[in-house]
Structures are given as C-alpha cells and as structure tokens.
C-alpha cells in the first residue's frame, strides 16, 4: 500500500514549515462554530466507489458502529431491515458483471476476443472499482499470479494494488482530526496536500510529526468500507452456500468466506494492524535485509494509522533474485517457525528499498498457523519429496484436508498418480500452483476439504510464488522453501519432528542413507547471503561445503542428527574392522598356501554398513557420491567382490578417494570455539558406541 515513485524525491517543499506557511496550504472554514484547517478545494473527479456505490454506506454513526466486527448473524439482522439496499446492490452486481460477461461472450462469437482483450480488461477493472473493496481485494489476489491470467488483465488488475482513485483529501483530513482529537497542524508540522498512494481500504499521506520531526506515513480509512464490505460478504456468503449445494463441493465454502471476511474486518481495524506490525517487527525485523516499519501507537486509532515512512520500488518491478530468496526465507519463518504470517503479500505490499532491502508493508491481513499444523505441513512436504504417498495420505488427515474415515489405500493410490510426474522432475522444479491444480479431481473424488485456516496459507504461498514468477518464470516457491524445511527437520528439537526424521531415515531397521544425503544436500541450499545466492547456480567451493556441514553437525541444534551419524559410523567401522580382518586372514592363508574360502563372518548387514560408511565419509567430506553405491572405480561389484578386490584390503579399495580431501580438514581451526570443543568430545562418544557394537558382536558369536 505504501509506495513512492521510482526516484526518491521529497514531497514537501522546503526543509520545514512554520505555522504560517503550514496554514497557507489550507483555508479556514467554520464547522460547528470551531475553527479548523481543511484541505484546499481541488477540482477532482469523485472516486468510482463513492459515485456508483455511495448509497451502500449512507449510514448514521450508530449503524456504522454496529458493523465494526464480523458477526454474520448481526450483519444479516442489520440488512434484513434494509431490503431495498440489498436488492439494489444485487441488481448492481448482477447487471454490471452480467453485462461484462455477455459482452465478452459476444466478442468470442464475433471472433473479436483477441482484438478487444485489452479493452475488456480495462472495463473489468473499472467495474471492480465501482463495486468496491471486497471485489478489489479478490482482484488483488488474482493479479499476483502472472502464470494464471493473461498479461492484459494482469496489467489492469495490478493497478488495483495501490493506484486506485483516492477520495477527497478534505474528507481525509476531517477524519484525521476527528480520530486523533486535535487540529491537524497541532499533530503534524507538514503533510502532503494529496495522497501519495491509494488502495481499496484507505489512502496514504506523507507527514512530519511536530513532536519529533520524524517523517511518517499516515493511512486514512476510506469512508463506507465497513458497510460496503459487510453487505458484499453477506451476498457472497449466500452465493457460496448455493454454489456448494449446486456443485456438491466437499469444502465448506461459507466457512472459507467467513475466514476471509474475518481477516478483512481485522484489516479495517487500524489499531489491530498497528499491533500486528509491532509483533511482525519483533519476530522478523532482525532478519538480515528485512525492514519492517515502526508503528506510532499514540497517533493511531481504528481509522487512522501512523507508521515510519519507507521509500522504495515494488519488488515485482525490479529483478532482484537475492531479495526474492530473502522473502522466501522470511516467509518460511512466518509460516513454519512462528506461525504468524503476512496473509496479503501482494506486490504493492513488498518493496525494495533504495538501500537494497526488502520492506514489508500493510499488516492488516495476518494469519496464525498452529504448531500442530506447522509440523503436519513440514511432514507433508518431506513425504511428498521422498515419494512416501502412504504417509502423505495420513498427513492430509492431520491437516484436516480429508476425513479420517477415507479409504487410505485409495487415497494413497490417487496421490501417487497426481504427484508422481511432478516430483520426478525434482523438488527444485515442483510448482506450488501446479500441485494445487493437479489435486482438483482427487479433492472432489475423495471429499477433500479446505479448512478455513488453510485458505489463507494457500493464498499466501500462491501469491508469493506469483510475485517470484514475475521476476523469474522458472521460479518455484516450494523448491526454494524446501531447503529451509530440510534444515528445520535436521535441527528442530520438536519430539514430533524428531520422530518423523527417524521414521524417514529408517525402514525396518535399515538406514536409508540416500534420504539423509538428500536432506543434507537440500539444507546446504538454504542461503541468505547475497554472494552465496548469486553464486548458487555456479557451484560451491568444496571447502565451503565442508565448513557448512561441520558447522551444521557440531551445532547444538544438530545433536539428534549427530547421534544418528555416530551410530551409523560405529556400525560402519565395526563392519570395516571385520572386512579388514577377513582380508588379512585371506591374504595370510593364501601366502601359507591354505585353501581360501569366503569368510562367513561378513554378513549382508555388514556389507550394507560398509557401503553406508563410504557414503557418510563422502558426505562429511563435502562430496555427494553420484555413482551407484555398488560401483567401485566404475566397475559393478557384487557383495562377494565388496569384501576383497584383487586381494587388496577393502579399506584401501573403497576409501582411497576420501584421502584426497583430507587436506580440507584445515577448515577445523576456522570453526567457532564451542564447535571445536564439541569436535574434541566426538572421539569418546564414538568409541563408546563402537565398543558397544563390538561387544554385542562378540557376545553374539560366543553364545549363538
């Protein structure tokens, strides 16, 4: 909402205003026998909302006050007493939208659809402006998806984000004085005579606080928005009920409308928006290169909001891949770390400041994502990426997307069909929008529901991907978010996520190292440093990778994964000891001309553990083994060959490649002191696990 022209230029003339020069911007008039400052008379066309829908908000103060909170029962009772207004509104909506669709149909019939495309897009934008904020809000969400709507419509609907015709400044200044309870020149030493930006719910002025001299943004609520939105929500909710019955939808469409309406009403309470901004700043303001404006609570009321002034350009209008990644990281924190998220991140609310930072604006529409749902969402992403569709079906029950009584086997089969092709392309190529589209038929068949809480989450992610697609058509928000999900799963202390990680890495007691490799590999893509992001596609220095992996595993948050690694290293070293002993015994027997035979002490489990050890060493060394685990020097090896190749000890055959990377252990002195101390404790922990493993093997041989 808060946007300034591309070039930073002062909106005030001169450094400061004296009382006299300030007053020269205004004329005096008598209102209720009191002297006040009002904006100068400017010949300007009345905004379309007031012109065409002004009858909707012709209410007295008592009636306005009764519509300050979203309560559908009260709203229905209120408009039951005003049937003529309801009827007039229905006729207006039906006639304007109906006429537009009819004209579009005739364009198609007359084969003029392409020729009239741009004209019809402009007409639709004007119709939405006439109908008011509720319809503008819907259009704003659509305009954030350039991959879903034609460019002509995108251009027109994008104008609804912050370039709506403003209402009278005289009215706006009267609202400021009434809400703040003092003359405008007592509060501000300067204020722009006209708004610098106008949106669906309000418009913004630049001003300077007289008390501190700070430049601030003053947002004033558009008159009549509460009554107009109340009536439109009542109508939309009724239509949602009809559509659900006619289409036999499983989702409670009225509940979805209620969730959206509740967020709209919260957005119209500017004191609540200021509190949201304060909380958002506390949670995310410290993230590198993220800027959240400071709220001025003393100068804020339900209809007037005063905040720190920020300047910049729309994020969607600049090609800054780094800030897109910063936005993804911030969104990850919002949705999956703290659960308090910006539910209206359209391009008008995201700026690139002139010093290259990402600024968040407009905190009216916020959402809460409960911990149980956050964990469920993370697990669903993990199971999707790892193609565990049976577990994904259970996740959908946890998230409330399908009823607990659904046939899990049938749902699993359906999800496999829906997601297999998308996931086979790799997590970096999975489009969130495409996944939602592919789910359509399955959702209907298995009575999927969209819980009311989830509608805002979906909208937030879809809008974020839409903004990113506008910068980079190949961008995938899930692919960019998954590295942070992988890192969280590897480091989170939540018992539920720890259990999920162990279930992901082990099946029937067997360690699935490929999944750990995948999690490590993806977690290393989670970068917020500008230089790292710019070099992301060009590869990463192996020394940097080793340092990242060691820092990750030695950190206090990596304790759970560190225990798993130590356990698997102990298994591998135990198997390596057996393999080396077998090789030496075989070599001695051959030299003494004994008849060699295959050692019986090397089990299939030992061979698997040996392979895992090799891959773990490569992983910790900053390498990703791309060869088949049964490939040694490019030659396929059977289990028997894995024990000894050409008579040489298996330890030398399998691990000679690792020796090439031992010099990179020079990164150890660069680690923080606490991590170096943790590294010194590892040998003792490892020795304990290895001793237990060897003792168990010895007892097994003696007694079994």
TrEMBL record:
Residues 190-524 form the Protein kinase domain. It comes from the Eukaryota. It comes from Anisodus acutangulus. Transmembrane segments: none annotated. CDD domains: ABC1_ADCK3-like (cd05121). It holds the Pfam family ABC1. Belongs to the protein kinase superfamily. ADCK protein kinase family. GO terms for molecular function: ATP binding; protein kinase activity. This is Protein kinase domain-containing protein.
